[in-house]
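ok, trying the design again with the full structure, not the truncated one.
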């Protein structure tokens, strides 16, 4: 009988609650310097949870916005539409306002690019800052967060998925990424 091989990430799994406390402290310090309260917008799913909790803990009275980037993703043509599309809700004029875009994990930067495209469909903000719970590295686009709970390179073979319990406390689930083997053909290797 052959037993399955179980593996674990080579990286330390971050404590999502600790990261949240760090991020909240950074944003509290920032809010103390703001002339006008920024508008918080969260990217569905984990970023919306993060924005919702920050919005409450910072005592913000401005409406909270949420966006679903499904139709703005650059891989939409290859992946198709997700069966889990959420509602985009931006019920405030963004023109000339400061926005804090919230996402749970910053990796390639592609989700942030898609979110920025969608935000600009609702108006032209004066400034958009990015707040993330965890920056795991692996950037493919020139995107950087201004407010970060924590950051370190994380094992690329694993995803980090934000979860929350009934009391709204955060933790990470760490599933292994699906491996898709691609056959790569190089022009020098093609036989004619």
């Amino acid at each position: 009988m052959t037993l399955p091989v179980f593996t674990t990430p080579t990286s330390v799994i971050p404590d999502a609650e600790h990261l949240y406390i760090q991020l909240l402290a950074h944003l509290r310090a920032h809010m103390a310097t703001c002339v006008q309260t920024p508008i918080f917008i969260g990217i569905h799913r984990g970023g919306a949870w993060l924005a919702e909790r920050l919005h409450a803990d910072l005592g913000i009275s401005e409406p909270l916005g949420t966006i679903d980037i499904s139709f703005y993703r650059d891989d939409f043509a290859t992946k198709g539409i997700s069966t889990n599309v959420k509602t985009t809700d931006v019920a405030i004029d963004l023109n000339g306002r400061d926005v804090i875009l919230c996402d749970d994990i910053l990796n390639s930067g592609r989700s942030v690019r898609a979110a920025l495209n969608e935000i600009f469909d609702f108006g032209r903000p004066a400034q958009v800052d990015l707040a993330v719970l965890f920056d795991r590295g692996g950037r493919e686009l020139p995107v950087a967060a201004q407010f970060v709970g924590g950051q370190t390179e994380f094992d690329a073979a694993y995803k980090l998925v934000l979860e929350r319990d009934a009391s709204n406390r955060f933790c990470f689930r760490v599933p292994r990424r699906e491996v898709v083997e691609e056959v790569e053909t190089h022009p020098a290797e093609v036989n004619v």
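Keeping the full-length input from now on. The chain has one domain: 16-77+86-176.
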